[in-house]
Input
Amino acid sequence: DTGVSQNPRHKITKRGQNVTFRCDPISEHNRLYWYRQTLGQGPEFLTYFQNEAQLEKSRLLSDRFSAERPKGSFSTLEIQRTEQGDSAMYLCASSPPAGVQLNEQFFGPGTRLTVL
Amino acid sequence: GENVEQHPSTLSVQEGDSAVIKCTYSDSASNYFPWYKQELGKGPQLIIDIRSNVGEKKDQRIAVTLNKTAKHFSLHITETQPEDSAVYFCAANRQAGTALIFGKGTTLSVSS
Output
């Protein structure tokens, strides 16, 4: 499968614990995005990278959230001191480099986080 | 910033009927409008998109229309099938490779 992959698919944690999610984009894609989706809502943008550079962060990305893409390939999203309000599906997407298809974002299956 | 409104929130049709989902956007600089289909437990899947330099695009049973003056765009599904049942999201952005702003979704149910 050459699509976007995310691990783990499900994570249950207790309030106050730290969690880390991983995203592996489509191999030739240089842009990588993180979104959050809560029940009954559309995905909400969190942050995106071009190669290893983090180019934009949403106001939704509080200081408890940090994302990295150290070698311009896979990315990690860490949430520190989790709160019940962090419970959501965390989606990763990637898009190809310059050209007409730059806009097209392809999503992974998501990581569902439940904070007890 | 951009705001995308989508309606209806739910839509039920009989197999073989057509389904239409409508979205409006607020930022006149937006120039890319994709539609995604999301099935239960899966990530959104890009099904069709349109750029602001065209008014309509068709791919087999699905089509998207764009009215830049009115700032709205629509998804049309003809000859619906039960496997079309899913949540559909519209989105918009103003610059290639940046954040997509999504609508709240439409749950489409196709009954046989």
